[in-house]
Amino acid sequence: MMEADHEDGSYDRNKELKLLEETKAGVKGLVDAGLTKLPKIFVHDGHKVNISSSSSATNVSIPVIDLGLLHEEGNSRHEIIQKVKDAGEKWDFFQVVNCDIPPCVLDEMLDGVRRFHEQDAERLIEGTPSLVYWHQGPLTVTNSLPFAVGGLQVFYENQWIDVTPISAALITNLGDMMQLITNDKFMSAKHGVLAQKVGPRVLISCSLRQHVQDECLRMYGPIKELVTEESPPIYKEIKMLDLIKLAYTKKLDDDVSPLEHFRI
């Protein structure tokens, strides 16, 4: 598929994003409409990804944590806590296996998302609400891309690492707020998705967040127990909404973490 040209300088990214959102048909709607050129909104000009920098040659992979060990005798709980701590300090991302969610439930969730996105355009539009960015509590987002199996990458030690999905595993990342409240003990890693040529890619993402309304006065800062004379606070106290607003207005070619705006 070729990239669409805009030689006359008339390209308006925000306008194209708005038009795509208003269709409520997503990427599938574009494919069903007979798309022949890749829209410029899907091309990240600022960062041409170097395929050779992936982890396939070095066998580097994010940690895998087995919660099934909780059912064994001994210090399994302490060992799992230590593995989560290590993953948070070094990676931000890790995969969780044997989490007591039956594989058939996970499979049905994926099938349900696939069935939803593969509906006729009219039914898909009727069943797709506008996104509530300031939602409080768990926020679940689903996506289905017709030709993109896998593709998740995490930036680790100056290279992009491919995240290979494990059957019935949950991919977990801690994120910016966890980095802030742990005073940089846990790190929030850059990550993205590199489109593949085989598929489909089905995604279910659940974000946990609280106190995002404008009127909420709850402030978040480094946990007091983690602040000492040797390790003073790195960040100001902020509202959750302040961080979310920065994250959603961040440009694609902006490599600066939203947290940098709140450093002391």
TrEMBL record:
<dbReference type="GO" id="GO:0046872">
    <property type="term" value="F:metal ion binding"/>
</dbReference>
<protein>
    <recommendedName>
        <fullName>Fe2OG dioxygenase domain-containing protein</fullName>
    </recommendedName>
</protein>
<comment type="similarity">
    <text>Belongs to the iron/ascorbate-dependent oxidoreductase family.</text>
</comment>
<dbReference type="InterPro" id="IPR044861">
    <property type="entry name" value="IPNS-like_FE2OG_OXY"/>
</dbReference>
<feature type="domain" description="Fe2OG dioxygenase">
    <location>
        <begin position="90"/>
        <end position="212"/>
    </location>
</feature>
<keyword id="KW-0408">Iron</keyword>
<dbReference type="InterPro" id="IPR005123">
    <property type="entry name" value="Oxoglu/Fe-dep_dioxygenase_dom"/>
</dbReference>
<dbReference type="Pfam" id="PF14226">
    <property type="entry name" value="DIOX_N"/>
</dbReference>
<dbReference type="InterPro" id="IPR027443">
    <property type="entry name" value="IPNS-like_sf"/>
</dbReference>
<dbReference type="InterPro" id="IPR026992">
    <property type="entry name" value="DIOX_N"/>
</dbReference>
<keyword id="KW-0479">Metal-binding</keyword>
<keyword id="KW-0560">Oxidoreductase</keyword>
<dbReference type="Pfam" id="PF03171">
    <property type="entry name" value="2OG-FeII_Oxy"/>
</dbReference>
<dbReference type="GO" id="GO:0051213">
    <property type="term" value="F:dioxygenase activity"/>
</dbReference>
